[in-house]
Amino acid sequence: MAGTTLGAALMIGVPIAAAAAQAPADAARHRACSGTGCDDKDPVVTGCARGAHPVASKNTGKGRFELYWSATCQTNWVQVNNYAGGGDYLRFRTSDMDRPHYGHVFTASTKAGRHYGDMVFSPGHNCAEGHADWISNGHDEVVIKSSGC
C-alpha cells in the first residue's frame, strides 16, 4: 500500500520528500547506500528521500529549484517539482565542495513536471552546491548552496 500511496503522490507532483515523510521511521534500515557509496545514486531508489527536505531554493521562469538534504544518508541533490518544460536539455549536478567529489552531470527529461538529479554524500556542515542547466549558453541557470557554504 505504501508503494501505491507514494506512486500516486509522485504522479500529482508532490515533492518526493513530502510523499516519503509517511514512510516508516526506520528509514536508515532500508537505505541502499551509505557514505560515499551514495555518490551519483538516485535518492528515491536508495531510500534516501525518506524524510528529506529542501535546504535552499531558487525560483526561475522554469520552476522552483531546490537543494534537498537527507539526514538519513547525509546527502544532497537538486530537485524541481514544477518544471515548466522545454529547454535545450535539463541537466543537474550536485557537488560537495569540501571533498574532491564534484558530482556527475545527470540529464533529465525536458517534459513538464517533477525532476531530480543524483545525490552527493555531503556530511554535517559541508558545503553542497546544486546546479541546474537547460540552455546551451555556457553557464548554469541555477546555482544553489547549502548553509555550510
Present the secondary structure layout.
Elements lengths: L1 H10 L4 H5 L6 H4 L12 H4 L6 E8 L2 E8 L4 E9 L6 E7 L9 E3 L4 E4 L3 E2 L6 E6 L8 E4 L4
Q: Could you please describe the fold and organization of this structure?
A:
The chain has 149 residues and is α+β, with helices and mostly antiparallel strands. The protein has one domain (2-24, 35-145): Sandwich (Immunoglobulin-like), CATH 2.60.40. Helix content is 15%, strand content 34%. It has 4 helices and 9 strands. It has helices at residues 2-11, 16-20, 27-30, 43-46; strands at residues 53-60, 63-70, 75-83, 90-96, 106-108, 113-116, 120-121, 128-133, 142-145. The strands form 2 sheets. Strands 1, 2, 3, 6 and 7 form a 5-stranded antiparallel beta sheet that branches. A 4-stranded antiparallel beta sheet has the order 5-4-8-9, with no helix packed on it. A hairpin with a 4-residue loop joins strand 2 (63-70) and strand 3 (75-83).
